[in-house]
């Protein structure tokens, strides 16, 4: 799968028209996947009457995909739609039809971002949209666009913040934990951790593992990293399911949970040498983005760099593909669109 990114970026077909087609195919595939997830989630909701079946990991369970990962795909879909290559390359549609489809996809993906409930992505998305508005619109139109976007954000915050729903619970869950647990050595299996408590605890374990194994320079190896962290969970008496059911039990609790920070994950796996290599890769990508002059490249690189602070995507094949594919795809975006025939002219968002 990783080779696909190099083929798209290095192939002679990576011109303006082909790039538009690629963005169109990506957007439509994302639409199809989202609709399938929504359909299955709605059927489950009809049976259970549990609104949580419509959100977060339950929503993407039909395609066996992590909701946070999928929200990154959706965010990049929004970025591509708002780029100058975002108009769907569907020539049988009239000019106004392509414009309507473009904005319909944009609105739909915004709705999916809410349903996927990734807190980080729901914060990053409006910031990117506001930046695009400042860059694309004239001063007069910018004021109107900002007023509309700002009003929509305030309405959404008011609706979700003033009622008992999954979104408000997701943000409120951050403050539910107790920071004092970070000083504890052992816990009860029923101890509740907020998402930030568990992350801070995992990061503390990273330091303890590196100190115990003298792994600061070269790490403890990718093969031993997760086993050592799992042993920390067991020694601390954190919830690990029912051991009587065996190692292949369905409910393993915290077992298998990584460090939820790619930089720390890399540090434990490969030491300062590996962390320096990861930082060097980002430095090269940002330098490439600057040289390319593509604003969308900055959106993608910054999103991934920030995302790595709270997740460890490179521990999964999905994350490796995402990290290899999107940066190379976006930095190779053609700088200037070649004028197309009148019946397939591009629509600029302005």
Automatic annotation (TrEMBL):
Location (main, coarse): membrane
Q: Which residues cross the membrane?
A: 24-42, 63-83, 103-132, 144-163, 267-286
What topology does it adopt in the membrane?
Answer: Multi-pass membrane protein
Keyword vocabulary terms for this entry: Membrane, Transmembrane, Transmembrane helix
User: One GO term of the cellular component aspect?
Assistant: membrane
Specify the O-antigen ligase-related domain's residue ranges: 105-278
Q: What top-level branch of life does the organism fall under?
A: Bacteria
Which compartments does it reside in? Membrane
InterPro entries linked: O-antigen_ligase-rel_domated (IPR007016), WaaL-like (IPR051533)
Q: Does the keyword Transmembrane helix apply?
A: yes
- PANTHER family in the record, alphabetically? O-ANTIGEN LIGASE (PTHR37422:SF17), TEICHURONIC ACID BIOSYNTHESIS PROTEIN TUAE (PTHR37422)
What this protein is called in its record is: O-antigen ligase-related domain-containing protein
Instruction: Please spell out the taxonomic lineage of the organism that makes this protein.
Output: Bacteria, Pseudomonadati, Bacteroidota, Chitinophagia, Chitinophagales
